[in-house]
Each structure stands twice: as C-alpha cells, then as structure tokens.
Amino acid sequence: MSRLQACFQRLAGESRKALIPYVMTGDPQPGVTLPLMHAMVEAGANIIELGAPFSDPMADGPVIQAAAERSLKHHTSLHDVFNVARSFREKDNQTPIVLMGYLNPVEIMGYESFARQASESGIDGVITVDMPPEEAEDYIAALRQYQIDPIFLIAPTTTEERMQKIAAVASGFVYYVSLKGVTGAATLDVAGVVERVSLIRKHISLPIGVGFGINNAQAAASVSSCADAVVVGSAIVNRMAAQKDQKVEQTATIVRDVTELLKSMRDAMDAK
Edge-to-edge, what's the strand order for the sheet holding 153-154? Predict the structure, then answer.
C-alpha cells in the first residue's frame, strides 16, 4: 500500500480530512524548506506538496510566481527537490510527499530518470500541471514503474467525459481546482465547490483534494465538509514572502507564521 493510500485510509477511519500544505523548494532560502516541512507535519499537515520552481508557471498567480523566482535565484533544480525529499525521509518515513511542478524540467531529465530519482528520494506522487492525461501515456508508465502516483487536476470547466478519462489514469487522489484562474486568485465559492465535488464523485472513486482560494481556517473547514483533502498554497507562501529577507539562521519567524496558520486550519477542520 502506498503512503498516500495509507494516509487517506487512516484519516477516513478517524473521520478526518487531509490537510495538504504547499511549500516551494528553496523559498525564500534553501535552508528553510526542510525544517519547515517537519514543522508543518507537527502542526497537523498530513501530506506535503513540494513545489519545484519553474520559470513560466502558467497555473500560478503572482504569489507563487514570485516564490519560484526567489527559488530560482538560488539555482534550485529538480535535483535539489529530490535532495530535500531524501533528507526529509531520514526522520519521517510516513508522511506522503507530492511533487508539484511543470513538464519542461521533467522532459529535459527524461521520464524514466525523473521517476527513478523521485522514487529513490521518497516522493509518492507527482502533479505535473501542464501534462494532460491524453498525452501522458509514456509518462504515466514511467511513474507507475517506480510506484509513483500520477495526480491530475480537475477544473471547474472539466467535462464529465474528461473526468472519466482522468479516472482511468489517475491514482493517489485527484486535485480539484476550486476556481477559474490562477492560484491565489478570486474568492472561494464554497457552495459551488460542494456541487462540483459531488459531480466528480460520480465519475472518480479516488479521494478528492480541493485547492486554490483556501486562505483561512473558515474556508478550510468549509471545504473539508465535502472534500477528502484541503490544499493550501498561496496563503502559506504569502507568509513566507513577508520574511523573504531573513537569513537561514532566522527561520523561526517563518516557521511560526506558517504553523500558526496550519494549526488554525487543522483545528477548524477537525471541529467541523
């Protein structure tokens, strides 16, 4: 059983939902990512979404675009992402890690090499934002060879026919993008999310994570009433950006700000 499957099964048995925070590798400083990952788990995170920086992150709004730019200034590469995951596994062999990024760096590395190195570093699933399932046959085959779950996005505009295509190739969970637009944009329409998640469940039996637009404890609790997981990205990166000029030795403020947010979300989700 994969770490992702075990995580969702355990939470379902506890009548709880997964909290999935996103962190951009190498932002705002390379030394921040690893201790922050451990702190997020202690604050109630169940799965870590580990971002790989890319120069043209088309699905991301200004907040995460800026995080990618800060990370790339430190020359962060996929190899650095793997190294962080590998280091995380030295102390935590249970919490699933999902790598989120874009196809270009994967293409350069090669599917087989990417999947092998991701597996060796302890990564459990991959979200490749700009890889549609219709074109992913070889990519999925490489991931499955190394027991890595391919996780696909579902948008508010995704048709039921395409949901069925995603259901045929996805594993781990599916990620519902709760609004039209980029990360960090607009406000969350909880009623619309509830309706859409109900429709997705008619076609996909995997757990459903919901992200984009979740920026406080109330929103996290509301979404957790219908989804299996709540994904939090821009709200975390915003807090990190406020401390971007701090040095590695002064990461305590970053960790405090992020974990306070996650603890409030975890408490609200559990109370719900």
Answer: 149-151, 125-128, 97-101, 48-51, 18-24, 229-232, 208-211, 174-177, 153-154
